[in-house]
Amino acid sequence: MRTIPSHDPEVMEKRSGGGGMAVFGFVFLCIGIAIAAMALGVIPAEDEGGPPRFVGAMFGLPFAITGLIFALGRSGLIVDKRTGVLTKWHGLIVPIIRKEKRIDFYERVTIGKEKRSSGKNQITVYPVRLEGSKGEAPLELSAAQDYLAARREAEEMAKFMGWELADASSGTVVTREADKLDESVRERVRRTGETPEPVPLPPQMRIRVERTGADLNIFTPAPGLGIPEYLLMTLGVMGTFMGGAMFLFVFIDETAPLPIKIFFSLFMIVPIAVSWSISLGRARKKYEIFVSYDRLRVKTRGFIFSSESSMPMSEMEELVFHSGLAMPSPEELARRSGKSGQEVPPIVYTFLRILAKPGLVARSDKAEIKFGEGLSDEELKYVHYEIMRMIAE
């Protein structure tokens, strides 16, 4: 949602809709109108018989309605601190459906991470919600697929209301007060005087830590193949064999053209090629972490490609552990719903936890950098300690 400028400091208004979706909807609307017009004879077209005209016109109706909704559909949010009312609305250009809630039902802003269905696909979203302790169900404000967009929206709401922001998207709940949302890790350490708790060397440490002057360099090894990789590779082999069984008739048919056989051969190879390339990429991924007084720089070296990301220390607001899961933990579900948190059966969550690759994530309002996947929990804690000790110096 985009924020609408307001002359009243006690009112926040946000709207969504229009833009590219309006153009998309306008195209669908024109197609629907054209189909109906041709069926009714308004637009001349060759008549080859067929169903009655009104039946043909009905074919254009779904296109027109869909286009109208996308072209004119709007939604918005109005938060009025003076009246203590929050209003969510949906409509066509102007509000048609309104839903009002009392602001005093809520006391914090939260960010989560969930898997949701989008047609036949599963997408990861970051819901921004308002939550309270008075028995009111959480109120979802948005569910962006981009974490940084969700973070910006959540921070804007938290600052406006003066509430704390609880971010559980990494699997670790990070709570920040409204007036500390733009505080960097270094500023927080200096303000509180906190020092990182010493962490002993891991018993089987595979990482290499170097100090060169005032800089800290950490090198992590490639984790190698584990349960998730072997499982994915097995599924790829099964997919290829299933494809071979389905298209066996093509290969035993002597009259089938060679290009057809080549096409189906390539089609069969896809499952094993994709699964093995992903598995080998995960198994060979290693990190080179360079920490200086003013910047965190992470080089990621994969099976084929490499990449590099960096973040100024003055902008880093979080350095936390991430679970590697695209769903809330049972504890987070329990906190959100006030129930037992068993929406995800424990055995399912345990299985997904085995497949996950926990690591560390550094976050600012502009970027996030994930690293350390494949290290043991003890090694991750040690890397976190070394970086935090460098920041505190």
What does this structure look like?
By secondary structure, the chain is α+β, with helices and mostly antiparallel strands. The chain is built from ten helices and 19 strands. The strands form four sheets. Strands 6, 7, 8, 9, 10 and 11 form a six-stranded mixed sheet that branches. It has a five-stranded antiparallel sheet with strand order 1-2-3-4-5. The protein has a five-stranded antiparallel sheet with strand order 12-13-14-15-16, covered by helices on one side. Strand 1 (2-4) and strand 2 form a beta hairpin. Helix 1 packs antiparallel against helix 2 and helix 5 packs antiparallel against helix 7. The radius of gyration is 27 Å and the shape is flat. 22% of the residues are buried.
**Range of helix content:** 25-40%
Envelope shape:
flat
> How many DSSP helices?
10
Uncertain residue ranges: none
Content-based structural category: alpha+beta
Largest sheet: 6 strands, mixed
Helix-strand layout with pairing:
Elements: E1 2-4, E2 11-17, H1 20-39, H2 53-72, E3 73-80, E4 85-92, E5 94-102, E6 108-111, E7 114-118, E8 121-131, E9 139-144, H3 147-161, E10 164-167, E11 174-176, H4 185-192, E12 208-212, E13 215-219, H5 227-246, H6 248-252, H7 258-284, E14 286-291, E15 295-301, E16 306-312, E17 318-322, H8 330-337, H9 346-355, E18 359-363, E19 368-371, H10 377-392
Parallel strand pairs: 6-10
Antiparallel strand pairs: 1-2, 2-3, 3-4, 4-5, 6-8, 7-8, 8-9, 10-11, 12-13, 13-14, 14-15, 15-16, 17-18, 18-19
